[in-house]
Amino acid sequence: MSSKRTASLGQFFEMMNEMDADQMTALVEKHLSDEDLELFVRHLEDFYGIEEEEELGNLAQIMVTGYLAAKSELGQLQ
Predict the structure, then answer these.
(1) Looking at the predicted structure, is the pLDDT value of residue 71 above 70?
(2) Cα–Cα distance between 18 and 56 in angstroms, integer?
(3) What long-range pairs does 69-73 form, CB within 8 A, spacing at least 24?
(4) Helices marked H in the chain — which ranges?
(5) Which of 1, 37, 38, 63, CA to CA, is 20 to 30 A from 47?
(6) Is the pTM of this model over 0.85?
(7) Please, are residues 77 and 71 in contact by the beta-carbon 8 Å criterion?
(8) What span, in angstroms and rounded, lies between the C-alpha atoms of 12 and 55?
């Protein structure tokens, strides 16, 4: 990864760290619908065979963060 990409990713995570729960929810809702979020969860259930609700929630949050990081990298996160 180039230093420019590393810096960009670092800035994204700094931005995330500065957000409170309401700001994070607003950011997610801006970029993903409830149906989109359900697709993440269904993928975890179907592809990985995960059934436990808490684990599904945690992994879905990780996937959403990755999705938002990619949008940020592409300059599509405003």
Answers:
(1) yes
(2) 25
(3) 69/9, 69/12, 69/13, 71/31, 72/8, 72/9, 72/12, 72/15, 73/5, 73/8, 73/9, 73/12
(4) 3-18, 21-31, 34-48, 53-73
(5) 1
(6) yes
(7) yes
(8) 24
Q: Which long-range contacts (CB under 8 A, 24 or more apart) does 10-15 make?
A: 12/68, 12/69, 12/72, 12/73, 12/77, 13/69, 15/72
Q: Which two tokens stand for residue 56?
A: 């599904």
Residue whose structure tokens are 């684990």:
55
- 2-61 pLDDT, tens digit each: 888 889 899 999 999 999 999 999 999 999 999 999 999 999 999 999 999 999 999 999
